[in-house]
Design a protein that fits this description.
Distance between the termini: 52 Å
Structural class: mainly beta
CATH class of the largest domain: Mainly Beta
Number of domains: 2
Oligomer: single chain
Number of strands: 23
CATH architecture of the largest domain: Beta Barrel
Strand content: 35-45%
Largest sheet: 18 strands, antiparallel, barrel
Shape: globular
Length: about 575
């Protein structure tokens, strides 16, 4: 508060001349501002300490003088009548300890119980002309459109609704201080009105419900074995990159490593994930080594399928990563693992868009046993994968697979093929959905000979949805990664059934209201290496975000230039919500 404010706030102070000789005047003996008793004007005191001109000589002595006189006489000075009074303090209740209780009492944070949960609920209502001709396959339908899954198109429109819950749990006991955690994940999905009072996954939405349809997706222990080194033991999600799926961003999985084009499903085994850092703590890169058992048929027999994986990724510069990868699959199951068989000679591989190699028997009396050994070598690079370090991002992937399919009673088949994928994205306007994207994919094809396979092999030859393409932005040309129970496409696997692939996809999105309303269009064109057109897709979408991590969208797409009875089309509404 300034001196001038004090003067107007306390008139009694200004009505008394200062005693400069005593050293008690405002300013330590310098000129003081005094109020003229008659006119109220402010005049400066002179340096002699005498009465200031314009001030009445009958004015009472200054307060400091009165205090001094009262002290000499042993009396206490009574405050003047016009002196301001100090406000009384409001009594604040005290607690039992006698401490003053504040107006806002902070509450302690609840103790960490070590339990975390993430749930993703997806509901979809679909209208389409795609149908299954086999009534037994009205539950889960995957694979190539028009292939072994008995899907086709018709003139009439079919309608369905389905729902899926993916529930992810982790329990890390606080007493163990992060040394151990239990990871589990379960899935429940069904079609509205499909079945009830039965046993089996992907169904249970009919009247009465009570379907036993809980599916176990993950059950593994996480062990902290050293600083920045974690071992995961048990049933877990296996990706084709160095990032830990339990902690990585989605763009690190689908735009890093093999982009899930080669392996992206659950398997039982052991993974070790680590992060390399400098002494200052900055990240140099990350790595993963893993060993998994894909199929175990006979405990005492050499008829299993195993997978070894080693991945390394380096942070070379700002937002720039480069990775090297090696995966080795050994298949001694003779093509007999699973209901539809296994390996590149099986019906399972053909169902999901992979190759089905013909086997040439060497002895008519001996049934061929097609075992396989395949090695994948891959390199990927990316700048600003997640578009969180700038407006532009680009990623690239190159893969080659080498190996042999051989066994008793058959002519060996050599394996040598490759794939190249490059994608560019740019955020051109505010909002997460305002992105322009283009991607090109090239895969080699099989030749005319029967002793060598020169195409691509993926996990789809050994497991149901063993690999999944995710970044193309299509609904029918390539598989929709957000489909619930009915996931079919003209090109379901990047090998395109061994016919090779040349594909170009693109999409454009605009957030009309940033991070609230998104409008987008997209599409793609694909053909085999021999020029056969697989289809041309055109699609559109409108997505509204009613709450954080929630989407309500309307999507439509059609596929032109197919050999099906009718060009397939789809229209669906989706409602997604994530809770944690």
């Amino acid at each position: 508060m300034t001196l001038l404010a004090l003067v107007f706030a306390f008139p009694s102070l200004a009505a008394e001349p200062s005693d400069a000789s005593s050293g008690d005047s405002w300013g330590g003996g310098g000129p003081a501002l005094l109020r003229n008793a008659s006119s109220g004007s402010l005049v400066p005191d002179d340096d002699t300490g005498g009465a200031t001109e314009g001030v009445s000589e009958d004015a009472p002595p200054p307060r400091t003088e009165r205090r001094r006189r009262a002290a000499d006489e042993g009396e206490s000075e009574a405050p003047p009548d016009d002196a301001p009074r100090k406000p009384r303090r409001k009594k604040v209740p005290a607690n039992d300890a006698g401490l003053v209780r504040p107006d806002v009492v902070p509450t302690p944070a609840p103790p960490d119980d070590g339990f975390t949960f993430v749930g993703l609920l997806t509901t979809r209502a679909t209208a389409t002309n795609i149908v299954t001709t086999n009534p037994l396959l009205n539950g889960q339908v995957v694979g190539t459109l028009g292939g072994l899954n008995t899907t086709s198109t018709q003139e009439t429109t079919g309608r369905s609704a389905e729902q899926r819950l993916g529930a992810f749990f982790r329990y890390a006991p606080p007493a163990l201080d992060g040394r151990f955690a239990l990871d589990t994940a379960f899935e429940i999905d069904y079609g509205f009105g499909d079945a009830s009072y039965g046993i089996g996954g992907n169904t249970g939405g009919a009247f009465g419900a009570d379907q036993v349809n809980l599916q176990t997706r993950r059950l593994a222990g996480r062990y902290s074995i050293a600083k920045d080194v974690t071992a995961v033991v048990g049933l877990q999600f296996v990706a084709d990159g160095a990032s830990d799926p339990a902690t990585a961003r989605i763009d690190d999985l689908v735009r890093g490593g093999g982009r899930l084009d080669f392996f992206g499903s659950e398997a039982a085994g052991v993974s070790i994930y680590g992060t390399a850092r400098t002494r200052a703590g900055s990240t140099l890169g990350r790595y993963r080594v893993g060993a998994y058992t894909l199929w175990e048929q006979g405990v005492g027999a050499d008829d299993d399928i195993s997978l070894l994986m080693a991945d390394g990724e380096a942070d070379l510069a700002y937002a720039t990563r480069v990775g090297l990868h090696a995966w080795m699959l050994t298949d001694t199951a003779g093509g007999a693992a699973g209901l539809l068989g296994s390996g590149p000679t099986s019906a399972l591989s053909e169902l999901q868009g992979g190759p089905r190699l013909g086997v040439t028997a060497t002895d008519p009396a001996v049934a061929p046993v097609p075992n396989a050994q395949v090695l994948w070598l891959a390199a990927d690079a990316g700048y600003n994968r997640a578009l969180d370090a700038g407006r532009f991002g680009v990623t690239a992937l190159a893969v080659t697979n080498l190996g042999i399919v051989s066994g008793e009673g058959m002519t060996p088949i050599g394996v040598q093929g490759g794939l190249f994928d490059v994608e560019g994205r740019v955020r051109w306007a505010p909002g997460a959905g305002s992105v322009l994207r283009a991607e090109a994919l090239l895969a080699t094809s099989d030749g005319p000979g029967t002793d060598y396979y020169t195409g691509v092999l993926t996990g789809n030859s050994w497991g149901i949805v063993g690999a999944i393409q995710t970044t193309h932005g299509c609904y029918l040309l390539f598989p929709d990664p957000m489909a619930v129970n009915r996931q079919v496409a003209a090109v379901y696997d990047v090998s395109n059934a061994g016919r090779g692939l040349m594909a170009l996809t693109a999409s454009a999105g605009w957030d009309a209201v940033p991070n609230r309303w998104t409008i987008g269009v997209g599409g793609g064109h694909a053909r085999a290496s021999d020029g056969t057109v697989m289809g041309t897709e055109v699609n559109a979408r409108v997505v509204y975000k009613p709450f954080v991590l929630g989407n309500l969208g309307v999507h439509a797409g059609t596929l032109l230039g197919t050999t099906l009875p009718q060009d397939p089309w789809v229209l669906f509404t989706s409602l997604d919500g994530m809770v944690f």
